[in-house]
Structure formats: structure tokens, C-alpha cells
Specification:
35% helix
Length: 225
């Protein structure tokens, strides 16, 4: 290693991997030039040996803000729900580094939110946002197996009962116990009656009566095969 001046600026020169490296420190200070030479040599050594410096993961509050910027093209209501979830998560995790967030922290968060009367579904949605943020920095897999999402109650949509029309039966009935065809029957379906005949060509569904004929069921013979 050697230092020399060109005008008022100090330069450094050294040999690395059989090549001469000669660069300017762009400084008039010999001390700065000496430090620049060491830093440059160290940079070349790390690159030659494929040594990568790991960056410290950001705080959750910073990572969440960066993650939200990537969610482009979403509906305003979805963006509001993301912001609300992040605001709740930040209360507990905002000052923690992503690498320091543990499954125990998430369990404590779930307990606090449940104590506040929040539904399981809402808590799971908030943890889903956290999961997406951690996955962006490849931090979720380290705790995924130890995180348990809350059980949600299945959402069922009720069906209003249909009103019966006069003269209509909601259950199929036999037209004649002694009918020559083994499965001739009539059935009421949504205000009109239909008949099924078991024939050699297969079952058929045909319209039986008009609404004015609901009061008296009428038997039909199976059509000729």
C-alpha cells in the first residue's frame, strides 16, 4: 500500500488479485486517504469472497408504512381496513424490529384484542395484514408454525320459508295405488303440478295442470312407449 499526492489531493495505490488499484481519495487529508484505502480494499475482499452484509430489518411501524405503499390499485374501503389494522398492530408492535416479533407477541395481541370485545374474524384479518408484512421481509416463516389463528363461526345466510299456495302440496303424493305404471305420480312444484312416468324410454317431466285446476288432482295415463 502506498499514498502519494497529485497536486493537493491524496491518492492511494495497492495490488489486489494481481491487479494494481490506483484511485483518488478526493481529499487533501492524508488520514482520510489512508482510511479510504482500507475501506476500498475491504470492499474488494468482500466482493471477491462473495460476502454480503446483512441489513438490519426495519421497525414494524416503518415496514408497515412501506408495505402499504405497495398496495396500489385497491378499493378505498380496503385501504381503510388496512390502515385500521396497522394502527391496532402498531400499538403493540410499532417499536419492535421485525426480527424480534415472536409468536408469543402475537398471542398477547390476540388476547388484548379479544379483551376489547373484537370478533375473531377481525383479529384474524389484522394478523393477516401482519403476515403479509412479515412475508415481504421473509420473516413470517420463522414463526408461522407457532402462530394459531382464532376459530371463526361459520356465517350462514338464512332462507325465508316459501308460502304455500291454496291447493298445492309441498310433498309428492301417489295418484293411484293401483296404477298400471309402477311409478306414476304427481308432484307440486312452485305453483304448477308435474307428473313423472316411468316408461321404457326413461322418466319424463310434463306440465299437469294450470293454476285454476289446483283443487282437484287429475290422473294421467303413461304415454304409449
Amino acid at each position: 500500500m502506498s499514498l502519494y499526492k497529485r497536486g493537493d489531493v491524496w491518492w492511494y495505490k495497492f495490488r489486489f488479485a494481481g491487479q494494481v488499484v490506483r484511485e483518488s481519495s478526493k481529499s487533501e487529508s492524508k488520514t482520510v486517504a489512508k482510511d479510504a484505502e482500507r475501506a476500498r480494499r475491504r470492499e474488494l475482499e468482500e466482493s471477491w469472497n462473495q460476502i454480503k452484509r446483512r441489513k438490519l430489518p426495519p421497525l414494524f411501524s416503518v415496514a408497515a408504512a412501506d408495505w402499504l405503499k405497495t398496495r396500489t390499485g385497491i378499493a378505498p374501503t380496503t385501504e381503510r381496513s388496512y390502515r385500521l389494522a396497522i394502527s391496532h398492530l402498531t400499538e403493540d408492535l410499532g417499536k419492535q424490529l421485525l426480527c424480534d416479533i415472536s409468536a408469543e407477541d402475537l398471542a398477547a395481541y390476540q388476547t388484548r384484542r379479544k379483551r376489547e370485545g373484537v370478533s375473531n374474524r377481525t383479529v384474524n384479518l389484522e394478523l393477516g395484514v401482519l403476515r403479509s408484512i412479515l412475508r415481504r421481509y421473509r420473516m413470517w416463516e420463522a414463526i408461522a408454525e407457532d402462530v394459531d389463528f382464532l376459530k371463526e363461526t361459520p356465517h350462514r345466510v338464512g332462507r325465508s320459508p316459501q308460502k304455500k299456495k291454496p291447493g298445492c302440496s309441498t310433498q309428492p303424493r301417489r295418484a293411484d295405488a293401483g296404477a298400471s305404471t309402477p311409478s306414476s305420480c304427481w308432484q307440486s312444484t312452485q305453483g304448477c303440478e308435474r307428473v313423472r312416468f316411468a316408461a321404457s324410454s326413461g322418466d319424463r317431466l310434463i306440465s299437469l295442470r294450470t293454476p285454476s285446476q289446483w283443487a282437484r288432482p287429475r290422473r294421467l295415463q303413461a304415454p304409449d312407449a
